[in-house]
Design brief:
Elements lengths: L31 H11 L5 E2 L9 E7 L6 E6 L4 E6 L24 E5 L8 E4 L6 E4 L5 E5 L9 E4 L5 E4 L5 E6 L5 E7 L9 E5 H19 L5 H8 L1 E2 L3 E2 L3 H32 L1
Antiparallel strand pairs: 1-13, 2-3, 2-5, 2-13, 3-4, 5-6, 7-8, 9-10, 11-12, 14-15
Length: 283
C-alpha cells in the first residue's frame, strides 16, 4: 500500500494547534464502586471480609471483640448448650507471629454463626453453626442465651455498622449487646446497654460470596427503580408548554380541535333533543 492509499485522519486540525498527549487512566480515577466490584470478583468466595453496610451481614458470620488483654470471639459450646467467649490468642502456636484481630478467621465451627434475615427486613437472626441450630436471644432483663430453636422478637437483632467498620447489635428492647465483666473476673455477654461504647462494638466478618450476593441484590433493586415508564401526556405538557401549562400546537391541530369541539356540541344537542322527545312521548 502506498503512502497516498493510507487512511487519513478525519478530525480537522488547524495550524498552530498543539497536539494533545494521550494519557493512561490512573487507577485512582476509576469509581470506587467499580474498584470494589473488581476486588470482590478477584476474591475467593470463602474469603472472610468486613461488611460495609448492615445489608451485607448474612451467611456464616464470625464475631470478635477487641477485649484487653486478649481479643475474644463469640462461640457456642454445643456440649454444655451455652455461649462461651473464647480467646483468639489461644488458637495460635507459641512460635507464630502475632496476628492482627482484623486478620483473624474462624478456626473451628463453634466460632461461626449463621446470619439469616427475612427479605426486606432490617433485623437479622443469629443461629449457631453447630448442634441443633439455636438462636441468639436476649430477654427484657438483658440476659443473653442461645437455647431456642424457634425465632421470635427476642431473637431479632438490628446491626449498626459504624464508619470505622465495627458493628453494634441492638435488640428488640432497643438495648445493645455488650461484653461485660461479671463476678469472679469472667467475661459474659449482656444485652442491656443504653449507649454504644467500647464494650458494645464488635468486629464482624462474613464470607465474600455473601457480600457479593447482597451487592448484586442492591444493584438489581436500583435497576428496577430506574426503569420508569414515560407518561406521554405529562412529558409533552412539561417540555412543550408556555405560561400556565398552555400547550404549543400547530395551526392544523387548532383547526382539528375546533371542529371536534363543534361536532361534540352538535352531538350533545342531538342527544338532548332525543331525550326530550322521548320524555314527552311518555308524559
Amino acid at each position: 500500500m502506498s503512502t497516498d492509499d493510507k487512511v487519513r485522519p478525519t478530525k480537522l486540525k488547524f495550524k498552530g494547534d498543539k497536539p494533545k498527549k494521550k494519557r493512561k487512566r490512573e487507577d485512582g480515577e476509576e469509581g470506587s464502586s467499580s474498584r470494589r466490584r473488581r476486588k470482590e470478583d478477584d476474591e475467593s468466595p470463602e474469603t472472610w471480609v468486613l461488611p460495609e453496610n448492615a445489608n451485607e451481614i448474612r451467611g456464616p458470620t464470625f464475631i470478635m471483640h477487641p477485649s484487653d488483654p486478649s481479643p475474644i470471639c463469640i462461640t457456642y459450646d454445643s456440649t454444655r448448650g451455652r455461649i462461651v467467649l473464647h480467646s483468639v490468642e489461644k488458637d495460635k502456636d507459641g512460635a507464630q507471629e502475632p496476628v492482627s484481630i482484623l486478620e483473624r478467621t474462624p478456626t473451628e465451627v463453634s466460632q461461626v454463626w449463621v446470619t439469616t434475615r427475612v427479605a426486606g427486613a432490617t433485623t437479622i437472626n443469629l443461629r449457631t453453626g453447630t448442634g441443633d441450630g439455636k438462636f441468639l436471644s436476649c430477654d427484657k432483663h438483658g440476659l443473653v442465651s442461645a437455647d431456642r430453636e424457634a425465632r421470635g422478637p427476642q431473637e431479632e437483632w438490628t446491626p449498626v455498622v459504624f464508619p470505622d467498620g465495627m458493628v453494634a447489635f441492638q435488640n428488640v428492647y432497643e438495648k445493645y449487646l455488650a461484653v461485660d465483666e461479671v463476678a469472679g473476673g469472667t467475661i459474659a455477654l449482656r444485652g442491656d446497654s443504653e449507649e454504644v461504647g467500647f464494650a458494645e462494638r464488635f468486629w464482624v466478618k462474613i464470607q465474600s460470596k455473601f457480600k457479593r450476593e447482597a451487592n448484586e441484590e442492591e444493584r438489581k433493586k436500583e435497576g428496577v427503580m430506574d426503569d420508569t415508564t414515560v407518561d406521554e401526556t405529562t412529558t409533552n405538557k412539561l417540555y412543550q408548554a408556555w405560561g400556565a401549562g398552555r400547550s404549543v400546537i400547530s395551526v392544523e391541530d387548532k383547526k382539528e380541535l375546533k371542529r371536534a369541539r363543534k361536532e361534540g356540541r352538535l352531538a350533545e344537542a342531538l342527544l338532548d333533543r332525543r331525550a326530550k322527545l322521548k320524555s314527552d312521548r311518555f308524559c
